[in-house]
């Protein structure tokens, strides 16, 4: 009798076995946790600051709205102070880029940015009267509910420099701007609406980009920014609600210190398997 023909992992030839047949060597190629990352606690604590910084920015925006609604701060003061801080940040941003030899991939100049700023201010102030009447037919409770939902979406979908399907910088920014428009429509004058929307653009569009630049090019900026924003946010919330400040501080500590320890403690339970059933990957 002829020796039994050795089975091959092919489908174009009849080998006298079902198509889903595998031999005893099939699992020899199985591998476990090939791409598992080993995390260090303090590195994870440091990186968690990206999340708490964005949450702090959202809380600061809400506190500023409360100040505006209570007439505790004039819209002119908010616009001037935020514009000066934005200008300082713009200069620092370009100084860092120049000192680190970062090539400018586009042909935009300071004059182009200035014209864009003027156009935004012109359109923003011109459309402010429209914002004041945009949501007249919607109840205030509904406006606040939509605002809360949009700000939560901003934190969830914000670009934290992570490769994940949930990340969407455009969705995050649009949600924040929509929330600012909703809140601006509940303020007293067109100046209030204009200052609120302008501040929203600065803190949700420009501020995150500035933080990313500092994190990438300035040593220890991540830790310093996290601590500074956390303390400033807690103090500002305390001026409105002491309970809110305590809750924010506890959440800040939980995200910064407890969640990283929780993540590392769950790493031993990771069990990803790889084998011949995976899609083929062509390597050059």
Structure description:
The chain has helices at 41-47, 49-69, 75-99, 110-133, 140-157, 169-184, 190-217, 221-238, 242-266; strands at residues 31-32, 273-274. It has 284 residues and is mainly alpha-helical. The protein has a domain at 53-99 and 114-235. A two-stranded antiparallel sheet has the order 1-2. Helix 3 runs parallel beside helix 7 and helix 6 (169-184) runs antiparallel to helix 7. The two termini are 45 Å apart. The model has no long low-confidence stretch (mean pLDDT 85).
Short description:
With 284 residues, the chain is mainly α. Helices cover 64% and strands 1% of the residues.
- Helical proportion? 55-70%
Largest sheet: 2 strands, antiparallel
Euclidean distance between termini CA atoms: 45 Å
- How would you sum up the global shape? elongated
What is the chain-wise order of helices and strands?
EHHHHHHHHHE
Radius of gyration: 27 Å
Unreliable runs, pLDDT <50, ≥5 residues?
Answer: none
Q: Give the strand tally.
A: 2
β-strand percent reads under 5%
Which structural class should the secondary elements be placed in? mainly alpha
């Amino acid at each position: 009798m002829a020796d039994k023909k050795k089975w091959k992992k092919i489908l174009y030839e009849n080998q006298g076995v079902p198509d889903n047949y595998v031999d005893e060597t099939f699992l020899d190629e199985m591998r476990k946790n090939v791409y598992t990352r080993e995390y260090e606690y303090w590195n994870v604590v440091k990186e968690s600051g990206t999340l708490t910084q964005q949450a702090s920015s959202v809380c600061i925006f809400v506190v500023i709205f409360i100040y505006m609604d209570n007439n505790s701060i004039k819209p002119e003061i908010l616009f001037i102070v935020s514009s000066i801080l934005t200008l300082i940040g713009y200069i620092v941003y370009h100084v860092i880029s120049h000192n680190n030899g970062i090539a400018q991939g586009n042909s935009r100049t300071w004059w182009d940015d200035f014209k864009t700023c003027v156009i935004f201010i012109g359109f923003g102030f011109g459309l402010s009267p429209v914002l004041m009447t945009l949501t007249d037919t919607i109840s205030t409770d509904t406006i606040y509910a939509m605002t809360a939902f949009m700000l939560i979406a901003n934190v969830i979908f914000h670009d934290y420099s992570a490769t994940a399907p949930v990340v969407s910088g455009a969705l995050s920014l649009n949600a924040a701007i929509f929330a600012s428009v909703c809140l601006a429509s509940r303020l007293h004058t067109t100046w209030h609406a204009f200052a609120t929307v302008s501040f929203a653009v600065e803190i949700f569009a420009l501020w995150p980009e500035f933080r990313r630049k500092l994190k990438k090019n300035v040593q220890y900026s991540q830790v310093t920014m996290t601590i500074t924003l956390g303390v400033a946010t807690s103090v500002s919330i305390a001026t409105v609600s002491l309970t809110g400040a305590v809750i924010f501080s506890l959440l800040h500590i939980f995200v910064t210190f407890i969640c990283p320890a929780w993540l590392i403690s769950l790493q031993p339970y990771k069990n990803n398997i790889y084998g011949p059933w995976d899609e083929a990957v062509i390597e050059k």
